[in-house]
Design a protein that fits this description.
The two termini are 17 Å apart. The longest helix is centred in the N-terminal third of the chain and has 34 residues, at 22-55. This protein is mainly alpha-helical. The protein has a three-stranded antiparallel beta sheet with strand order 1-3-2, with no helix packed on it. It has seven helices and three strands, in the order H-H-H-H-H-H-E-E-E-H.
Length: 188
């Protein structure tokens, strides 16, 4: 929506006809805002991770996956992805409200897909029996009656966070490239 707002308010005419190139304008605005959002997301994610650890201390029966995408590194990637999608949709649609709606829908789909991919496609361990609890600190994937329980050991938490962050940042880079292409190819 950053670019859509500029177009709607016609301020892009002043920005893009000055001595600063569109590339430099786009890079300066997006990198500064994305970096600020990444730092804010990292701080919020670390605080949420700390809270999650204290709220679920001693709980070995329930799954902590509901917290996974909102704790530690993941929240920084989510903030950057949401921003990048808003920029891309703003550059493509040139209207603020449709860009926000498209960014929200795209973010929801991409986040749920990335979370599912990290959760389901990475190797898991299984308990030795149907009524055997997963080790403390594990990330339980689900349980079915009379079957071993699949889980990610606690030691996989940070590698899985890094994988999710990498996926989210790759998607954000693609969205920002799409926004740049739309900005570059559109006439003033």
């Amino acid at each position: 929506s950053m670019i859509a707002r500029e177009v709607e308010q016609r301020t892009h005419l002043a920005a893009w006809t000055q001595s600063v190139s569109r590339r430099r304008w786009y890079a300066a605005k997006t990198s500064a805002l994305a970096a600020g959002l990444a730092v804010a997301g990292l701080i919020a994610g670390m605080a949420n991770g700390w809270l999650q650890h204290h709220f679920t201390a001693g709980d070995t029966a329930s799954s902590r996956w509901s917290w996974f995408a909102s704790a530690s590194l993941a929240l920084a990637g989510e903030a950057v992805l949401a921003f990048a999608l808003a920029v891309a949709f703003g550059a493509l649609l040139r209207r603020t409200l449709p860009a926000i709606g498209g960014a929200m829908a795209g973010f929801t789909v991409l986040l749920l897909s990335a979370r599912w991919a990290v959760q389901a496609l990475t190797p898991t361990s299984k308990t030795t029996g149907p009524h055997v609890a997963a080790p403390p600190g594990s990330w339980i994937l689900g349980s079915t009656a009379n079957a071993p329980i699949p889980y990610h050991p606690a030691g996989q938490y940070w590698p899985l966070q890094i994988i999710l962050l990498s996926v989210l940042l790759a998607l954000a880079a693609g969205a920002l490239a799409t926004g740049w292409h739309a900005t570059r190819t559109r006439t003033v």
